[in-house]
Amino acid sequence: MKKVAVLLFFAVVAAVAVLGLVSCDEDSDEEIAVGVAFPLTGVSEGLGGNMKKGVELAIEEINASALLGGTDLRPVFEDTEGIPDGAERAFRKLIGEDSVSAIIGPWSSSSTKRIAPLANENAVVAISPTSVASPSGITAPGDFIFRTSLTVDKLVPEAIKKTKNVLGYSKAATIVNEDDTFSVSSNDKVLEELMKNEHSDVEIVTKQTFSREKNAELPDLTEQLRAIKDSDADVVFVSALSPGRQGVIVKAREMGIEAYLIVIVLTATDVAKAEEEMEGSTEKVVTVTNWAADSTKQSEEFVANYKAKYEEDPDAYSARSYASARILATAIARASTHSSEDIRAALQMMNGPQAGLDTIFGKFYFDENGDGVYSTVVRIVRGGKFETLE
């Protein structure tokens, strides 16, 4: 009887194991819900719409490939309204109601800073395509926040080194929107870098601020820009989000400021909108940024596929969102399970050049804070188009 009982026990165990294997096989054919939190309404809905297109194209390509076996990604879109409060609402819904393991978003550094504690406390991966502020208070405190953009800590030193060598400026002015996390972080990094010994030949002749909260109208900048014009600066560092940076460019040119304007992460969309408002306003505008359409072969392929699908050119927001979805999908494919903890671990393993991915940015990996590392792109605008600064 004991022998029969033992045989029955092992038969049951074997049956359970087989059922488990069948269940795993069935799971591989299921969908994985991925949250996507972008500004789909408000003043930033245009760029949010482009970010959505980038993710949709990436997921279409991923699901048509063998990357995830028989598993498809299913995006669950939520509107952040382009503000931190909206980002928090979107993340709470995606985490609490939709039970996603990973979220692509949010857009701004202010919103990413707001949701960072929420993602870390709930152990849900958040991967922002476009947050650029310093890691302090964003990626540095926890393990579940990742960003695929180059941060100001990487962008600004390269911007100053490259532009100073090529443009040869000696008098610098700064202007910053003091109500935005990215803008303040960018401006702080500009001032810190200019005060280093190797840049001691550059005088900071004036530091100007303005206030524009999210979704608010751009204030009159006459007083600030008059001070910059009177300072005789030959270069002006602009730290602001769209449409603030567009407004600074146009107003500066209207007031006769002919200095080079160095705008951190300026996009082709910014250039086009400034040119619509004032033709020729973007001449002598320089940017250091994360992506250019012609920077890599993969980028050129992405541009072609995007144009074929949407009959328009991608912008930097759609490109970075596309890349974020591809990077996240690779982590999901490498993770031992589809849990957020295992997806996080797979992202953390992309931690150096040898473990990096080939992306539209070129070779990509994460630093110790979970922020992207790859080559910067420095461009100057001529005739309304970006050209290599040389």
Could you describe the 3D structure shown?
With 390 residues, the chain is α/β, with parallel strands linked by helices. The protein is 45% helix and 19% strand. It contains twelve helices and 15 strands. A seven-stranded mixed sheet has the order 7-6-8-9-10-14-15, with helices on both faces. Helix 2 (45-64) runs parallel beside helix 11, helix 5 (152-167) packs across helix 6 (181-194) and helix 11 packs across helix 12 (340-348).
Write the layout of secondary structure elements.
Layout: H1 2-28, E1 31-38, H2 45-64, E2 72-79, H3 84-96, E3 102-104, H4 109-122, E4 125-128, E5 145-147, H5 152-167, E6 171-177, H6 181-194, E7 203-210, H7 222-230, E8 235-239, H8 244-254, E9 260-264, H9 268-277, E10 285-289, H10 297-310, H11 316-334, H12 340-348, E11 357-359, E12 362-366, E13 372-373, E14 377-382, E15 385-388
Parallel strand pairs: 1-2, 1-3, 3-4, 4-5, 6-7, 6-8, 8-9, 9-10
Antiparallel strand pairs: 10-14, 11-12, 12-13, 14-15
Helix pairs in contact: 2-11, 3-4, 5-6, 8-9, 11-12
Helix fraction by DSSP (H/I, runs of at least 4): 40-55%
Major sheet strand order = 7-6-8-9-10-14-15
Low-confidence stretches: 1-28
Terminal Cα span: 88 Å
Note the total helix count.
Answer: 12
Rg is: 24 Å
Instruction: Indicate the CATH architecture of the largest domain.
Output: 3-Layer(aba) Sandwich
Domain module tally: 2
> What is the percentage of strand-forming residues?
15-25%
Number of strands: 15
Mean pLDDT: 91
Give the biggest beta sheet: 7 strands, mixed
* CATH fold-level name of the largest domain: Rossmann fold
**Which structural class should the secondary elements be placed in?**
alpha/beta
Please name the fourth-level CATH homologous superfamily of the largest domain: Response regulator
Order of helices and strands: HEHEHEHEEHEHEHEHEHEHHHEEEEE
Basic shape:
globular
